[in-house]
Amino acid sequence: MSMRWGCLIGSAAVLVALGSCGGGGEGSNAPASQQQGSSAPPPVSTPSQPPKSASTCREVAQYGITFTFDHAYACGTFANGDHWVAPDAAGGVVTITAISPAYTGTRNGFEVNPAHVDRQGFDSRSEGFDPTLVPALPYAAHGGESVVKSISLVDSPAGRTFLDSAAVLTVLDAIPDQGGANLFRPPYFGPDKPLIPLARVHSERLPKLAPVDYAPSLDDIASRFARVQLDHMNDWTGADIHPVQNLPDYGAQVAEDTADAGLRLMLADSLQAKMPALIGYLQYGIDLAAARHGGLQFAANGGHRIGRKVVLAFAAELLDDADIAALVHDAPYNTYQEDGDLHFSPVANQVLWGAPCSTDDYWFNQNTTRGSRDCRDPYDRIDGGQTPGGEYQFCCTTKPLVATALILRLMPHLQCLWNNPDLVAYADRWVNFGAWTQPDPYAPHGNGAPDTDPSDGIGRYPALHGTNRNDGYYSSRFADAMWVAYRPGAASAVCH
Length: 496
Hints:
- By secondary structure, the protein is α+β, with helices and mostly antiparallel strands.
- The chain has eleven helices and ten strands.
- The strands form two sheets. Strands 1, 2, 3, 4, 5, 6, 7 and 8 form an eight-stranded mixed sheet that branches. A two-stranded antiparallel sheet has the order 9-10.
- It is globular, with a radius of gyration of 24 Å.
């Protein structure tokens, strides 16, 4: 059964409402280059793959990492190029005798089926290091196991991470169809290892929009998501195990990248050209979903945890996956920073920016400039943060949020799946107006006292109302160009 979340109502020049709500298909009045397509189950829309039999390997190597076995086993690669091996007989094992570069006891660690969101066995300098998670070699690997190996950085890093690279070897129960070339790699996290075929990709749900200036190449997007996105640790210290060759350490850069990738996949390239980038992007969503089932969360925290919800939403929609969809649609508030940073205030009649905080935490930061610099306004009048329109709102969250909101507008079913209208409303407000600080009856540094001095305006930050319109960091010229080209013709969905 097709997984589609709610009906869509509303007009959009570049979009059509799909599925049981009407529109789309051959009867649509939208130009062919701007249609999103039908929600009916598609024919196989992936490039044809020739049948492929398995080779045998005594060792496999990828990204500077080599897995060596006691003898040659059936082996191959998944659609994204990651390796698999299979035992000689059903119920057998693959004996791994060496993995290089070697684990030192504190560096170059590896795990089998990582299952913890607060501990890791990759590098002792990283938060939550637990050497008991690193198996001894030789290791008898069974079908349904993912061996995740890291290479540590030698020198102290300039950023957060202590890892240079990582790769995944998947041990299967048996040789897969077509040698695995038509399959996504199973998620590296946890014990469940579904084999998802490329034929499940609903590529017809992607818009086919005319190109805009500054678009990154599809090769750039494919390269960015080619390696495993090792992203399964809670809190901001999860960046400690983001290998520099695999993904950025800082969440704001992850958010810029994931938004740019989603938008780039909406342009009118051939499916053949898109597939390497699309495979890598969807693989990230498959991996995130498994880690979410294991307790992974991305609660609001400065600029650290943003950018992942859109990847899961994209994967749920294009893979027609109800399980991944539920992780997005049914998630409690502040499971994802994209939700936790925003809330609708009936007092201000606006979606305001700021993370959940206590009143004491808010005023401690206001009066000392210490503590959390992303606290929401406890009175629901103005944007939060140490300075409305500044700090984390300006530097590290809002522009990636704007680009993500455009993805939701251009694939309207994602708005229903997202299950929170705050993002699209906030993006429009920021682009068209900027920071929100009025009306506000409270005095600056007054711990909630009313402002009785009108000489500089009433409120904590009256002069900042409407400042920094459509400004901020961690934004690409490509996303800005897409907004200019396609936001005017897109409308919000009404989901029910």
